[in-house]
Amino acid sequence: MNTRRFAPRRTAAGGFAAVGAALALLVSGCGSLTTSGEDAERETHTVEEGFQVGLLLPDLHTARYEAFDRPFFEEELEKLCPNCEVSYANADGDVNEQKTQAQAMLTDGVDVLVLDAVDAAAAAGTVSEAKSQGVPVVAYDRLAEGGADMYVSFDNHRVGQVQAQSLLEALEAEETTGDGSIVVMHGSPTDPNAASFKAGALEVFEDQIKIGQEFDTPDWSPDEANSQMEAAITSLGLDEITGVYAANDGLASGVISALRSAGVSVEDLPPVTGQDAELAGIQRIIAGEQYMTVYKAIRPEARVAAAMAVGLATGEEPKLGEQTLTEVEDGSGETVDAVLLEPVAVTKENVGDTVVSDGIYTIEEICTEDYADTDFCQEAL
Question: Where is the signal peptide (predicted)?
Answer without folding.
Answer: 1-24
